[in-house]
Specification:
Number of domains: 2
CATH topology of the largest domain: BirA Bifunctional Protein, domain 2
Distance between the termini: 18 Å
CATH architecture of the largest domain: 2-Layer Sandwich
Number of helices: 10
Largest sheet: 5 strands, mixed, barrel
């Protein structure tokens, strides 16, 4: 993509109404446009990042036999009255139509799977979607971390016994950590015991990514590394230790066992007349995007991890023609953003750092005299001079 063709406008100053780093940088770098509190448009760069996250999530959930569907965002009042959740404050409602906007989908997926299964032999089933959710969030702030219109992956599992549910629960846990590893945040993310809330009578588990921008507080055991949300923290770990480290964090996913909370309402039973058991597994796509920016940035801009970067290469021409290099990179299937604008070197380099693509490739009169280019990874100081004839191989090796 040539930068002259891209729908983008970078901004030097932080927006006055945004205090969070992720919102400031994503707006300044041209990834998102704010429409209202907790509501954003995702511009071409932001869309590519979201698609990269979705791709990772799909691959890892498909690897544990998830089947993707798309359920409606308009939800009938009748289903929600059955579970007693029609009047929850989180739901936006269209009262005259007796419809609500989807903020979660237990009331839809449970009767759906019941309709398309007929015996115990049909289980287990694992159904997920990646979809926009609408939540009447009273504290719509912190950029993408707390939105009213956001994108989430919600997975629901259906089982005939608790052993099978427990086994799949562990598989989801492993899959989530693979997702966070590929997104670059695994080393800062803790599997955290939390309250079950309205979804579960017991406990749930959250995936909490440590950052100073976090709104949550977790306590990490210094002896065994177990993590607890402050809602359930009891000053002593199961390992016997009473020494903990307090950390601020962002919840980037949560999983919990629903057991028969919803299957009992919809009379969803197995061949023996026992209620089907369920698990629910949420992961915020847009929230992960915001968390990545909070974790990976510097005073110049965003530092995207490799798999998440909107373009793998940002090709910057400084008083030189890089058209042939751009075309060759494209022919090799390398995602490249080509800054071909008639701007000063300083403005181009500042925008390059602000946008934060994984690799920066500079073509200048000086490098062309050496039949070379200058390459630097975003977030690192080290630069390398690479011959143009070796550029494709060098980049592919880095990717």
């Amino acid at each position: 993509m040539k930068q002259t063709d891209l729908l983008i406008k970078t901004v030097k100053e932080n927006p006055k109404d945004e205090k969070s780093i992720n919102a400031q940088l994503l707006i300044r770098a041209g990834f998102v446009d704010k429409i209202g509190a907790g509501i954003y448009s995702y511009l071409p760069l932001g869309f590519k990042v979201l698609e990269n996250i979705k791709k990772i999530v799909r691959e890892e959930i498909n690897n544990i036999n998830g089947q993707e569907v798309v359920m409606p965002s308009l939800l009938p009042k009748e289903n929600w009255e059955k579970t007693g959740r029609w009047n929850v404050p989180e739901m936006y409602k269209i009262e005259n139509e007796k419809l609500g906007l989807g903020w979660t989908h237990e009331e839809i997926v449970t009767p759906l799977v019941k309709k398309y299964t007929s015996s115990s032999k049909d289980f287990p089933k694992y159904i997920y979607q990646i979809q926009s959710k609408f939540r009447n969030e009273p504290r719509a702030k912190s950029g993408l971390l707390r939105g009213r219109d956001f994108i989430m992956k919600d997975l629901y599992s259906f089982h005939t016994n608790s052993e099978d549910l427990n086994s799949y629960y562990e598989k989801v846990k492993e899959a989530y950590f693979k997702i966070y590893e590929r997104c670059g945040i695994k080393d800062k993310t803790y599997f955290t015991l939390a309250s079950g809330g309205e979804f579960s009578s017991a406990y749930s588990h959250e995936f909490q990514t440590v950052t100073d921008a976090g709104e949550d507080i977790i306590y990490v055991c210094k002896k065994c590394g177990a993590s607890f949300n402050r809602e359930v923290f009891e000053n002593e770990c199961a390992c016997g230790s009473k020494e903990f480290e307090e950390k601020k964090s962002i919840e980037v996913g949560n999983i919990f066992k629903l057991d028969d909370k919803y299957s009992s309402v919809f009379n969803f039973k197995d061949d023996e007349g026992k209620n089907i058991l369920m698990g629910c597994y949420g992961l915020g796509i847009t929230r992960v995007m915001g968390a990545i920016v909070e974790v990976f940035h510097d005073d110049k801009g965003i530092v995207w991890p490799k798999e998440i970067s909107p373009y793998k290469v940002h090709l910057v021409s400084i008083n030189a023609d890089a058209e042939e290099i751009y075309n060759n990179l494209q022919k090799e299937g390398i995602e490249v953003l080509y800054d071909n604008r008639d701007k000063s070197a300083g403005e181009k380099l500042n925008d390059c750092d602000l946008i934060g693509c994984y690799l920066r490739v500079i073509v200048s009169e000086k490098t062309l005299k050496q039949l070379s280019v200058e390459i630097k990874k975003r977030g690192e100081d080290k630069t390398q001079i690479v011959e143009i004839k070796k550029l494709i191989g060098f980049i592919k090796n880095e990717l």
